[in-house]
Design goal:
It is a single chain. The protein is mainly α and 107 residues long. It is 52% helix and 11% strand. The protein has one domain (3-103): Rossmann fold (3-Layer(aba) Sandwich), CATH 3.40.50. The strands form two sheets. A two-stranded parallel sheet has the order 1-2.
Length: 107
C-alpha cells in the first residue's frame, strides 16, 4: 500500500499518542516510530465542516464525539474504495449504516 492509501482524522494523532503512552515503555521506540510514520498518512483536518457533520452524526447515531469526528472525516473524504477500520462497535455500526465498507468484518 502506498502512503497515500492511508487516511485518518487529525484526532487520531492524539488518540494514538495517548495509547502509546499508556501501553509502552519509553525505551521501546513506539512513540518515535509513530512520529516518524505520521507524515505517511493523508490527514483530514478538523475543519468547521467536519465538526458540524460530526455534531449531527453524534446526535443521530449516538456516537461519542471522537467517533463522530472519525466518521465525519471518512464521509467528507469518501472515495469509492474507502474502508473504515475500527474496533469500536458503535462506530463500526454507524459507518456501515452510512454506506462505508468496514474492517474488521466482525468484532
Amino acid at each position: 500500500m502506498d502512503a497515500g492509501d492511508w487516511l485518518t482524522s487529525r484526532v487520531a494523532y492524539v488518540e494514538t499518542t495517548r495509547a502509546i503512552a499508556l501501553g509502552s515503555r519509553s525505551e521501546d521506540g513506539a512513540a518515535a516510530a509513530f512520529v516518524s510514520e505520521w507524515p505517511s498518512f493523508d490527514v483530514v483536518e478538523l475543519t468547521a465542516a467536519v465538526a458540524e457533520l460530526a455534531a449531527t452524526l453524534a446526535a443521530d447515531a449516538r456516537l461519542r464525539p471522537v467517533e463522530a469526528i472519525h466518521l465525519a472525516s471518512a464521509q467528507i473524504a469518501a472515495t469509492d474504495d474507502l474502508v473504515l477500520a475500527t474496533w469500536n462497535a458503535q462506530l463500526r455500526t454507524a459507518a456501515a449504516e452510512h454506506g462505508h465498507a468496514v474492517l474488521p468484518e466482525r468484532l
